[in-house]
From TrEMBL, chain A:
Keywords, sorted A to Z: Membrane, NAD, Transmembrane, Transmembrane helix
InterPro entries: NADH_UbQ_OxRdtase_su1/FPO
A cellular component term, taken from the record's GO annotations: plasma membrane
A GO MF term: NADH dehydrogenase activity
Subcellular location per the Swiss-Prot or TrEMBL entry: Cell membrane; Membrane
Protein name per UniProt: NADH-quinone oxidoreductase subunit H
Pfam families the record matches: NADHdh (PF00146)
Species for this entry: Streptomonospora salina
Membrane topology listed for this record: Multi-pass membrane protein
From TrEMBL, chain B:
Species in which this protein is naturally found: Streptomonospora salina
Listed name of the protein: Uncharacterized protein
Record field: compositional bias (Basic and acidic residues): 142-154, 161-173
Region (Disordered): 94-185
Amino acid sequence: MGEPMPLWGVLLLPIGLLLLGYGAAAWSAMLTARAGGAPASAAASAPARETARLLVEQRRTIPGADTVLWRLGGAAVPVAAILSVLVLPVAGRSAADLSVGVVWFNAMEVLIWVAVWTVGWGADSVWGLVGAYRFLVQGLAYALPHMFALTTAALGAGSLRVSDIVQAQEGVWFAALMPVAFGVYLLSAMAMAYWGPFDQAVARDLAGGAGAELAGVDRLVFRAGRYLMLTAAAAMAVPLFLGGGAGPLLPEWTWTVLKAAAVLALLVWLGHRLPTVRMDRFTEVGWVVLIPATLLQALVVAIFALVV
Amino acid sequence: MDVTTWLLRRARPRPFVVTALGGTGLRIAVEDELRRRSWQPALTPVAADMLVVCGPSDGELAQVLDRVWEQIPEPRVRVLLDARDDVARSLNEGSAALAESAEIPRREPPLADSAHPAPDPSGHGGAGSGRHEDSGAADASAHSEEHGAHDRSEGAGSAAADEHGGHSGHDMHGGGAEMPGGLPMAERAADRDGLTLDRLHAELGPALPDWPAGLRVSLTLQGDVVHDAAASVVGAPPADTARFWTAPHLGGRERGGLSAEAAAALDGMQRLLAVAGWSDAAATGRRLRDDLLRRGPRETWRAQCRRWTRTVRRSRLLRWSTDGLGSVAPDAPEALRGDVTARWKRRLDTIEAAAAQKGAAPTPTDAGTAAQCALDLLPSLLAGQELAAVRLIVASLDPDLEAPVADGAEAHHG
């Protein structure tokens, strides 16, 4: 149990998340521009320009929509992302070093399920509804391997407290000790932010899926929330698998930010490298391959923890 | 200068591009222009602030366009293009109009009971007559550019009702109950497992990104699974329109048969990749297509093309998504045979032949016959598939509906 984070640190946390999230969106726009042969440097401002456009755009009302759920769902995405990093230790201190920090992180990710479902369902649209269906199926496919990956990290440290997990990696990082769990965590990080190959819920073939009906500031919040969630998932990989702030020369918080940015850049790049995976095909892999693999990984780690 | 004006001047437009039959050349010019400006096209009218219409719009398409226009939030601008227009200049004018829209009119949301009856051609006895709202900000269209949900033209009630009654398969409202908003409930029918589930009617096209021009597919859906499907053609190009891909001139350049076929294959391929959720490969495909049309198959183009086809062909994930979908019997025209994977691999073969400059020009496929055959096959191919598969199957068949008309015109002129 480390010292609590000072108040200014708690205030900086969402700002840092926003900055990293913007970086992810800009990096994504640059990759798109490069693939299309357009100058990549000009694309860095694309998210800012889109933000400007959405801020002045008219919001949308739909007769027959479940407006409360629809608006709440969109707003819940960034809220869940910001709440999930409360347990993220930066320079050895977290905003809330809960004794069940890993469970807290997982609970916020489940909030995303609710959010995407209500956004899709509330909008009274075929696109939205089908996108929401797809996200629930995706949840069924990735959530268990994801939870086993988190459990494995907790097993290795013998604690659900995130700061304990960081301390347990002083010798060797968990990414090296439990590579299968780390790999599955990276996959499920993309899946929880419905990003890259797991973007079927908001896919192009559904004209935007769950978010198809959002206009103006609602669309901005929903889309920004997705980048925040991806950033939060990438940042949590640092204390769980990459030794937290451990590193030579630079101060601890710098290492945390650098590692988080590296994981985030990798996830964004992967999302651009790979086509969308159809969930009706992936579910089988999730259950037949990933769950046994993560269970075996947990078993190996448990034995290792007993012996060592 | 107030904040709104400041933001408007910094915003980058997001066009929603609709292609009419006969507008393929314009669509490609627009896509080329957008790609070079890094303007991201919108997937739905709701996400757009600019409506770009490529090619002639006849009566039926004009109605669709009106509904699309209704859904675009303010501030918004319409850009209608015909063959004589300078695409870049038209887009600039549209963009300038958006940046200067100092007074953004705020449209009031409609009252649901301002709906007016629409014809009910389907004979599905839905709850209540088909209707759609006349609305500014609200959606009234089932044209899947956007809202399958509110199909009023089928008399099926709305997906709203479907969603409320049907997302769990339980009827929570009782038949004929009215939804908030005064929308009627959906009807129900047995699904493939014999469960009684709500049905809703949705139309894909003709104003839908990554979708063949002029195609409309009317679906009856249960959840995201197609119960039955019907395909039709919306609009007709003017009689003097030549099929874009066989037109002898484009931008004043002669094009060999090999290059024209390869450009057509690249166009079909970029569309399929976009639907398969591989935006970057799709963007590269568009760039290769535009470079080929503009300058012909140069050496750098060949190298890039070989690299791109290799990447796409090797993608296990793509094959995993498309294997075994939409199998067509071997008695169909050659371009349609096999499953989705076989069809896109054939396209890659055509592109590679152009990149390697090997072999004679392929025998030009009879696009008219293939398109007609694809239209006839679609209902049977789509029944029982879910929406993702529907989009992949349509993109792999990619019927060129400008072709039959063009062929007919040629036959007509002797």
